[in-house]
Specification:
6-stranded mixed beta sheet, 8 strands, Ubiquitin-like (UB roll), single chain, alpha/beta, UBX_dom, 8 helices, 2 domains, elongated, two-stranded antiparallel ribbon
Length: about 270
């Protein structure tokens, strides 16, 4: 018995160690080379792979659609999209987006012949608008992959009595309140041109038709003015723009006349 007790009364062993402050060095294993495979021999996607969702890329057309087509400042209709389009085409061909901040805008011949330039190049007001819009291009920096650019619609500003009166008012009495006006954008039959007309609400559909015929050098009886939503063809030339709901900003279309003109009634 004493021998057995002596065996159990031996020196006690430490069975628990405090390893909370123990530092374990990294083993330094290298990454497994190769792509790796999963069931079906599909390629495992790497973290460096880029994922692009359809429609997520900013394109030139999307950017231009966010800008106003034109603005009226001090009685002057300023085309916004046209010069920016020309500037983007030049810039994409000559410089990366980092160069956008110091670009000088030069209007194209088509822009100069449209009547927007006033025959004297870009004024300070136009330059301010262009620089503001081009600053947006610089901020998004997304135009390196926007080629080729889609064809641009030629926008033509039609000289109207309302536009001439507004220009005169802004020059002679700029402090006077601006009258209520309507801006109409009317696309040609082939969709290659868009006519911009600044008119008064009391002007008639006949006035609009006559201005379009004069600007296009065609007979007013050869085309129809219509809208797609709601689907309406504007036949009544005596109807005012206000009564027809063509205020304050409207987009319309032109097409070849499909119905014969009504015969005049007996007098």
């Amino acid at each position: 018995m004493s021998a057995v007790m002596g065996a159990h009364e031996a020196v006690p062993q430490r069975l628990v160690s405090d390893l909370r402050n123990q530092v374990y060095p990294e083993n330094g294993l290298d990454l497994f080379p190769g792509e790796g495979r999963v069931v079906g021999w599909q390629r495992i996607q790497k973290p460096s792979d880029k994922m692009e969702h359809p429609g997520s890329r900013m394109t030139a057309e999307k950017f231009l659609n966010r800008l106003p087509k034109c603005v009226i400042r001090q009685g002057e209709v300023i085309d916004v999209r046209g010069p920016i389009w020309d500037a983007l085409q030049v810039r994409l061909a000559m410089a990366p987006p980092a160069f956008l901040g110091g670009f000088t805008i030069n209007p194209s011949p088509a822009y100069q012949s449209s009547g927007l330039s006033g025959g004297s190049g870009l004024g300070p007001l136009r330059i301010a608008w262009m620089e503001r819009a081009l600053g947006c291009v610089h901020s998004i920096g997304a135009f390196q992959n926007c080629c080729p650019l889609p064809a641009r619609i030629q926008e033509i500003v039609v000289e109207t009595p309302a536009l001439a009166a507004e220009r005169e008012r802004s020059q002679e009495s700029p402090e006077s309140p601006a009258p209520r006006l309507s801006m109409l954008r009317i696309k040609s039959e082939n969709g290659e041109q868009a006519f911009l007309l600044l008119m008064r609400p009391e002007d008639t559909v006949g006035d609009l038709r006559a201005l379009l015929a004069q600007a296009r050098a065609v007979d007013a009886a050869t085309f129809e003015i219509f809208s797609t939503f709601p689907p309406t063809v504007y036949h009544d030339d005596a109807l005012t723009l206000q009564a027809a709901g063509l205020v304050p900003n409207v987009a319309l279309l032109l097409r070849a006349r499909q119905a014969p003109l009504p015969a005049p009634g007996p007098e």
